[in-house]
Amino acid sequence: RAKKLGRNRVEFFAPNLKTELSRNRRIAEHVKLGLERDEFVPFYQIQVDARTGRIAGIEALARWKHPQRGILLPEAFLKVTATLGLLAELDAAILRRVLRDREAWESRGIDVPRIAVNTSAARLSDPALMEQIKGLNIQPGTVSFELLETVFLDDIEEDVMMNISALRQMGIDIEVDDFGSGHASIIGLLKLKPQRLKIDQRLVMPITTSREQRSLIRSIVDIARALGIDVIAEGVETLAHVRLLRRLGCDTLQGNAIAFPVPGLELFDQLVAEQQGQPVRP
Ligand code: C2E
Ligand code: MG
Ligand code: MG
Ligand code: MG
């Protein structure tokens, strides 16, 4: 196997590399290789319309199919990927896979809803972004970009602003991720006019036990309404959540109570079941 891993095999398997630094370097080396070998893949989590229960969208979530350690979650690799300056590359790799999957499902006669990809700030301010995206030939309405709300500050940088309006012109929706956990300003929302905001799961989860938290959700929904923005609730874990969030006016629901993130093959089955009118959901 050392041979397969190629030029860095000495660093990988030297037995005495125990310090934090060398461990990080080892993971880092793996991330680079993993990207080269296409080991990063999207898992998919459906989002449903709060009123009808029909699939309204899908979020693509990065997973690392690590050759030795199995399927790894973002918490295991995002930080080091960012430190290496490879986050934009990871985002690009996931988007390419999403487009490929989408095409494969559509060619089998499936109606695929909009798929959201997570987008790092690094990618959003990359001057090469628009050229890359144009080359991908994305159909309007098929893909949206989730941005952390730190992007939606009052004084948005010019390059980011330009990239966002260019994305919009190509029919790519903008969504604010983890809303309520960062510093989005209402001025920022007004300037960037995202299509949707996703309420952070830490605000959603406590609504079953706290009246205060419920009013908070209602206020966020009101603000979003005033700005013409749709609201997605994340971290919907129980049926009680589903009922409350519907009552509080959220448009779309996402969370383990509805469906877990699954590999593309399983998502395909979910889409088929949906299309045949037999979704398997609570
Ligand atoms: P996020 O975009 O806010 O994604 C939601 C996270 O909550 C996902 O974790 C998802 O699996 C998890 N989740 C979904 N439903 C529930 C629920 O009902 N309860 C709980 N407790 N959790 C739920 P995941 O997949 O581990 O992703 C973590 C974060 O990593 C994401 O948060 C996103 O910020 C980042 N991420 C994921 N994929 C990518 C990517 O391709 N590029 C970039 N830049 N970041 C990514
Ligand atoms: Mg997200
Ligand atoms: Mg989120
Ligand atoms: Mg998050």
Automatic annotation (TrEMBL):
Residues 24-275 form the EAL domain. This is Diguanylate cyclase. It comes from Phyllobacterium endophyticum. It comes from the Bacteria.
